[in-house]
Amino acid sequence: MSYSSAVSTAAPTPVRASLFDRLQSLSDETRARILLLLETHEFTVGEICQIVQMPQSTVSRHLGILGHEGWLTVRAEGRSRHYRLSPTLDEGARQLWIAVRDALSTAPVAQEDRLRSRSVLEARAERSRAFFSSEAGRWDHLRKEVFGDLAHLGLLPGLLQGSEMVGDLGCGTGHLTRLLAPFARGVIAVDRAKEMLEVARGRLLDLENVQLREGDLTGLPIDGGVLDVAVLALVLHYVVDLERALREVHRVLRPGGRILLLDMLEHDREGFRQEMGHVWLGFRPEALELLLEEVGFGAVNIVTLPPDPDAGGPRLFVLRANRGS
Residue 237 and residue 250: Cα distance in Å, rounded? Predict the structure, then answer.
């Protein structure tokens, strides 16, 4: 399950779509190409146009047909609508789609679509990388301006007992790492931006129990079962593939270990995407709970934090869950 499928709303569909209705909706190669893209990732209309190299009017018409026949889920985020192949297809539709997908997936046009889709996904991630590469020096000020100086403290109550190995995943400039280190056996602080890690290195020089490592949340540079606690503080909204990242967190935690996550509630501040490289405009905590359970976490607890009068950004929430055996 992906986060997007957990929050999507199915497009209207006839009460009983016949086999012939289904066949007709998949009879066009363009519609089949679109569904092949949407099976593995969600995309906006503009992104689909870029991948299949067709005008928006054409793509929108095909999406309308697919949505009417129940092939799609749609998630609104700000002014954008994100489309995905429906995860709740009936058995007949699912078998029909498998047959069409298998016939199309090896075609040259489908291979070209896959290459262009990777470029689109990489462009999403590049916006975040470009932002951090250019803004490392003033990140602390910007973070305080948006979220308040004490936002991270919402993570700390009941978190550590002094014997845990903690992962600060997406550590940025090491602000939270410095708060956690005195209360932990050790902290492995990971970030994908070299510039951020350079600032963190200067901040954490006097702490002997901290390891700084360069890496991405979807491929953590940590051995399996090493961490007792994994902390993701205001970082998940920069991750393109949520499910893959959370599976990585599950992998590096020991059985019974905990994930502690701080992030924004769902909001409509589209400027965050352009100005700060956000991939997600916040989250619905209950949707993240479903995704965590699918990945293998349990005992999920969610607390919405009270608003910080000094913060200009969206409301925050804390989510805690345990890794199963």
Answer: 18
- pLDDT tens, residue by residue, 154-187: 556 446 788 999 999 999 999 889 988 988 999 9
CB count, 10 Å around CB of 169?
27
b/e 173-187 (16+ beta carbons within 10 angstroms → b): bbbbbbbbbeebebb
> Measuring CA to CA, how many Å separate 124 from each of 19, 49, 149, 177, 238?
37, 16, 28, 27, 9
pTM over cut 0.90: no
Whether 54 has a pLDDT exceeding 90, the answer reads yes
Does an H or E element contain 244, and which? helix 242-252
Give the integer Cα–Cα distance in Å for 277 and 180: 26
- Asked whether 63 and 47 are in contact (CB, 8 A), the reply is no
Nearest-angstrom CA–CA distance, 101 and 110: 10
Q: Which domains, from first to last, does the chain contain?
A: 3-106 (1.10.10.10), 139-323 (3.40.50.150)
| DSSP strand pairing (186-191 vs 210-214) | parallel
Whether residue 191 contacts residue 233, with contact meaning beta carbons closer than 8 Å, is answered with: no
Task: Please give the Cα distance from 41 to 52 (Å, whole number).
Answer: 14
Residue-level pLDDT at 124: 82
* Backbone φ, ψ for residue 313 (5° rounding): -95, -175
